[in-house]
Each structure stands twice: as structure tokens, then as C-alpha cells.
Amino acid sequence: MSVNRPKTPILTVDSLIINKKGEVLMIKRNYFPFVGFWVLPGGHVKYGERVETALKREIFEETNLKIKSYTLFGVYSDPKRDPRYHTVSLAYFCQSINSRLKGNRESTAHNFFPLNKLPKDIGFDHRKIINDFKKWNNKS
Question: Whole-number mean pLDDT of the chain?
């Protein structure tokens, strides 16, 4: 018996990794969409995977960093945040254990940026996420 399932958004995670200087880690995308744009480390949650596991996996795959703690600070659900399809992202503030950054095939570069001097070309809704984090962090 087949069941008609409703279309639902795809779940993703995004991370804000802030160094001791108060700068945010961003990677330069190598894949569509937003090739050559700066984005926060993150990605899709796999079916059957916990969100926290996806967060740790995506950060490690994209940066080689392991995280020691993370705090959820926002949920982003604009149907237009990803031009491919509707995604909902859980954004986390993360602290890393190590600082040996290493990229992978998904990115061409990584860099820490001061929160008040972000790059011009930022993909997805990551500028909004960073700006929301600045507000959230001032309240904490």
C-alpha cells in the first residue's frame, strides 16, 4: 500500500565558530549554489541522524575541527534561503577543541572574519544568521 506523504522542507545545520579574537569562521564554497561565496560551515542532516551528530560531522568534514560545545540560537526557515529547494536550518554557536583548519573538496578557502567586517559575497541567508548571532550574543 503506498502512502502519499506531504512535501516537507529539508533539515540542515549551520555553525558559528568564533575564535578568541571574536571572528567568525567562514568557508568559500566550491559547489552550486553560491560557488565562490563565503558561507558558514554546515550542511544537510541525513535521514536517521541526530541534528547534533550532523552538526559535528559537517563541521569536521568541512574544516577538520572537532567541537566541544554547541548552543542552538536560531532556526531559519525562509523557503527561499536555498535556491535549490526549501530548507530549514538550525543555527548553532560552537566552540572548537582544536584549531588546525583544513578544507575539503566542498570549499576553496577558509578564513576568520571580524563580525563587523564580513566579506561582500555571502551565500544563503548566512549574513542574516551572523547578524542575528551578534544580537543574540549581546543578550547572553
Answer: 92
5 or 119: which leads in pLDDT: 119
Q: Please state, in angstroms and rounded to a whole number, the distance separating the CA atoms of residues 10 and 134.
A: 26
Please give the average per-residue pLDDT across 94-115, as a whole number.
Answer: 85
Rounded Cα distance between 36 and 32, Å, is 9
Model confidence pTM above 0.90: yes
Q: Which domains does the chain have, with CATH numbers?
A: 10-139 (3.90.79.10)
Q: State the number of CA atoms in the 13 A half-sphere of 42 facing the CB.
A: 27
DSSP assignment of 7-57 equals P-PEEEEEEEEB-TTSEEEEEEE-SSSSTT-EE-SEEEPPTT--HHHHHHH
